[in-house]
Amino acid sequence: MNGQRRRGFLRDNALSLAFLILLMGSLVGQAISGVAGYNLEARTAGLQEISLWRYVTSSRFAVDTAENWQSEYLQFTVFIFLTIWLVQRGSSESKKPGSEGRETDKKQLLGRYAREDSPAWARAGGWRTAAYSHSLLITMTAIFVLAWTAQAVAGRVANNEERMRDLLEPLSLGQYLVSPDFWGRTFQNWQSEMLAIATMAVFSIFLRERGSPESKPVGLPHDETASDD
Description:
10 helices, about 70% helix
């Protein structure tokens, strides 16, 4: 029975578990390659090399990680918000044209339209239903802001370490927030995320992947949005 329950848990959560494993593997790879690159630069400059542990607890590792995380959560925050109001005919990433907006309580299964198995706050009404109705966007936005803040703080420390090696005055947080280093790191991540979302929305009009929920059925016409069926 325990074996069946364990297999059932793994099957029902396979997607999130797979991405968690890929995330951990990516972080390990980033740490190993990052400390190797750092120590190569240190040897070239005649500076002391550092251990793997010291690298993963350094501002350099923190800023590299935070800037990637903030851009990913910005991508999802913007995508969640824009797909409420904007559509792309034929895209599997879009609602069908004509259904723009927040939609009715009946379609969203809110209040008196909630089912018996609906979340409690979908039935509660008032501020609880209002908060729950926007909980995904609120959470994604909060994580984005926290990650961007972490990028700013860690980036300032990392940038000041480089400035001190060049015998330059360190920057305050306010100065760093308007510096080319901060915005260069930010925009180079933002543009890649916007490109990825845009291409996914457009490619899914014309291209297919059989069996994937991110794709329309293979035989569906190009101009038919996935939610039309």
